[in-house]
Design goal:
760 residues, alpha/beta, single chain, Rossmann fold, 6-stranded parallel β-sheet, 18 helices, 6-stranded antiparallel β-sheet, flat
């Protein structure tokens, strides 16, 4: 057990904006690192749970949470069937006001949690009025909707006549089952009935309708519905506590919106009109491809439809919440559910793009055998793609697992935190502290009242605060490797399955986890990510296809991510397994190879286009790099401009590591293989800052090779101490570029910052 360290009371005169605002222009120093000010202290979720919350109880707990735990604020979560005072009532707002005033006195920052419990979108699950949530009562026509399909097989010639099902008609399509020819019958509806003279052949006639599903949440795909949700939740707080916004209230927090509702077929009744406005043609004839293999256009059809639905989700919920928050002087964060779906089509739609318009992308590290750690890099990469400074994680809830008794131990707690910060998360929100610690629903209870944690909690929160000082800043992320996010292939291979929920046409559903039922055969992008980290010992960034097209340029054998703050320069571009890819993306990849870059393809080479009728162009571009196609597995191809290309049919960590060593002369960071050693490198205030962590149970003694001639200090986030490190400068034989050698020694579950000495 870690020895208790008393945290001196540190009160700031006025609470500044949330960390995102505070950190603008932030310069770090050894003193700030050793004794972080309160704005860098972690702010857990505080569940007001299953009991009556009083002003007296709030004041007492807040004082103790700051002084005994080292917490710098909270995200307040009203929760439980026995909670009182009633959510958003006058008595509730009075208690909330007492909490805000005490936070102001203590120098704490409050995150405005936007819901009673979760998921966001109901404005309270136990409102009066037939037991329905408030939003459903006020806006019954703006709740979540579902796309339904009614179908019938007929043999022509024949007359087909059918009454249209309830709901908004989205389209009627007749598909000849042999030729897969499709005919739009939507205009043949009269008086609520469709009538069509079918020619000879076997026909499948499909009627698509958008219906209210019954889930009492705001329609996440409809900005107007989300704005009405905001008016019922966020605006209540703003109208009552406007003076606290931007000072005591630093941001908003949403929890677990998702498209897995509505039997995995979430839709919105304005879909067709908005699609037509964007693309200039009706989507009706594309609809059958969401259920069936419709031939050569199936991949592009699904990319149009699922891609547009993902865009509506990102614009409909996260953008509206973020825009409102920024307009009211605060930031916004939150997370989808579940982030760990290999195919995100029926959850976030497109995990990276769901955060395009969110100030602080987030993820939930929770128990229940949900491996969120395999997906951290997707969320931090979203921040790097769209030039955001912060990445949030709601961490430790219901852990170790829902079905495992007991609590996390300190080694697990530190290991998870270090894993997150080395993968780009820099705002860990502990889950959780509980107002009534005798009625904890989801362990652990992370407060001074829990004897498992009381004597070392301040040690841990100070550790997190030091990580925040160093990594919550305007620094830019450094990585030599980019990995293309294969969303076009994920969307193209996904279909709706009337029998089992989400499924696919490429392989059987995984029955062990409902959220993996739509897993497509040969998906490897998450494996590639974790092989790079754990086996190859290399950091990287996922690139969204949109960002690869719009924000990346090529020069001098490198691919450059052109952002104002987070500029990145890549020597290697990896295209993980993808059957389908856009023409523009593959062109950028081949251009990179032709201009001297290194490209690596894994598992399978693309052969389908995300654009209709352009598969041959995909095949031609692939052949220009690999004339022998997938038979060239393991072979490195070279061109006259220094470009290198390799296809790995059966990839693993060692193969990736070997290919990288054979194709790249020098990396930003290099060290002997060690699965428990992880790092992140940023440049902050023109100084190199490396964070190395040993997430495992064995000591690590190794030698690091860092690009450039750098004098380094070691800053220990566990103790706050610092010392100069012995470094050796050398030149790489192949590139003649300077490198710095430094020895690294880390105890189990410990970490260290390597900080470039400040020039005098």
């Amino acid at each position: 057990m870690i020895k208790n360290n008393f945290w001196p009371v540190m009160i700031i005169v006025a609470v500044l904006l949330m960390n995102a605002t505070i950190a603008a222009g932030q310069t770090f120093s050894q003193e700030k690192f050793k004794n972080p000010s309160i704005q860098f202290w972690p702010r857990p979720l505080w569940f007001w749970n299953n009991t009556t919350v009083t002003g007296e109880g709030i004041v007492q707990q807040m004082q103790a949470m700051r002084d005994k735990c080292g917490y710098g604020g909270f995200g307040v979560v009203p929760f439980g069937k026995n909670f009182s005072p009633e959510y958003l009532s006058e008595d509730y707002l009075k208690v909330y006001g007492i909490m805000l005033e005490k936070a102001k006195e203590l120098g704490m920052t409050i995150s405005l949690y936007d819901e009673f419990g979760f998921p966001s979108g109901s404005v309270g699950a136990f409102a009066e009025g037939d037991g329905k949530p408030r939003f459903q009562l006020k806006y019954p026509l703006q709740t979540i909707k579902r796309l339904d399909k009614a179908e019938e097989d007929i043999s022509g010639p024949a007359v087909y006549e059918k009454k249209i099902p309830d709901g908004k008609l989205m389209g009627i399509v007749a598909m000849e089952t042999t030729s897969l020819k499709r005919i739009d019958l939507t205009e043949m509806v009269s008086g609520g009935t469709v009538r069509w003279k079918a020619p000879a052949g076997k026909w499948k006639i499909m009627i698509f309708s958008c219906v209210t599903d019954g889930v009492p949440l705001a329609d996440y795909l409809d900005p107007e519905a989300v704005r009405n949700f905001i008016s019922m939740a966020h605006e209540v707080y703003y109208n009552r506590f406007k003076g606290y916004f931007g000072t005591v209230i630093g941001g908003t927090f949403f929890d677990e919106p998702s498209m897995f509702h509505a039997e995995f077929r979430m839709w919105t009744d304005s879909f067709n009109e908005k699609f037509l406005l964007k693309y200039g043609f009706s989507p009706v004839l594309l609809y059958p491809s969401m259920w069936y293999d419709t031939g050569s256009s199936a991949q592009s059809d699904r990319n149009y439809l699922f891609g547009f639905r993902a865009e509506l989700y990102g614009n409909g919920f996260t953008k509206e919440v973020s825009d409102w928050s920024v307009a009211h002087g605060i930031t916004a964060t939150g997370h989808n559910a579940p982030e760990e779906a290999l195919v995100p089509v029926n959850s976030s739609g497109d995990l990276l793009k769901s955060f395009k318009y969110l100030e602080i992308p987030g993820i939930d590290k929770i128990g229940g055998h949900r491996p969120a750690e395999r997906f951290y890099k997707l969320v931090s990469s979203a921040a790097y793609n769209w030039d955001k400074k912060f990445v949030m994680s709601e961490t430790y809830g219901a852990m170790p697992d829902y079905d495992t008794p007991g609590d996390l131990n300190w080694n697990q707690i530190f290991s998870i935190a270090m894993d997150q910060y080395t993968k780009g998360i820099n705002m860990l929100i502990p889950h959780a502290v509980w107002y009534d610690n005798t009625k904890v629903t989801y362990k652990p209870e992370l407060s001074y009242r829990n004897p498992l944690y009381a004597d070392s909690l301040q040690f841990f929160t100070r550790f997190l605060a030091r990580l925040n000082v160093m990594l919550q800043n305007n620094g830019r992320h450094i990585a030599d490797i980019a990995v293309v996010y294969p969303i076009a292939s994920l969307q193209g291979g996904h279909i709706f399955d009337d029998r089992t929920g989400p499924s696919n046409i490429d392989g059987p559903a995984d029955p062990s986890n409902e959220f993996y039922k739509d897993a497509i055969k040969e998906i490897d992008y998450v494996d590639v990510a974790n092989w790079l980290t754990n086996a190859a010992g290399k950091d990287f960034t996922f690139l969204h296809p949109e960002v690869l097209d719009e924000k990346c340029t090529i020069s001098e054998g490198q691919l450059h991510l052109q952002n104002i703050t987070n500029r990145e320069d890549y020597k290697v571009l990896i295209a993980p397994s993808c059957k389908t890819i856009s023409i523009s993306n593959l062109q950028k990849i081949t251009d990179f190879y032709n201009q001297g870059g290194t490209v690596i393809f894994t598992t399978r080479l693309p052969y389908r286009s995300a654009e209709t009728g352009r598969d041959k162009e995909i095949l031609q571009m692939v052949k220009s790099v690999f004339p022998g196609g997938e038979k060239e597995t393991g072979k490195i191809r070279y061109n006259n401009n220094g470009g290198k290309a390799c296809f790995i049919a059966e990839p693993d960590g060692q193969k990736l590591r070997d290919i990288l060593q054979q194709t790249v002369n020098e990396f930003d960071v290099d060290y002997p293989q060690c699965s428990d050693l992880q790092y992140i490198h940023k440049v902050v205030d023109n100084r190199n800052v490396y964070y190395f962590a040993n997430t495992g149970s064995s000591s690590i003694e190794t030698e690091l090779l860092l690009r450039g001639d750098i004098r380094l200090e070691g800053w220990d986030p566990h103790t706050g101490s610092s010392k100069k490190l012995l470094t050796e400068s050398k030149k790489d034989r192949a590139s003649d570029l300077p490198h710095t050698k430094v020895k690294l020694s880390l105890k189990p579950y410990h970490s260290l910052f390597l900080v470039e000495e400040k020039e005098e």
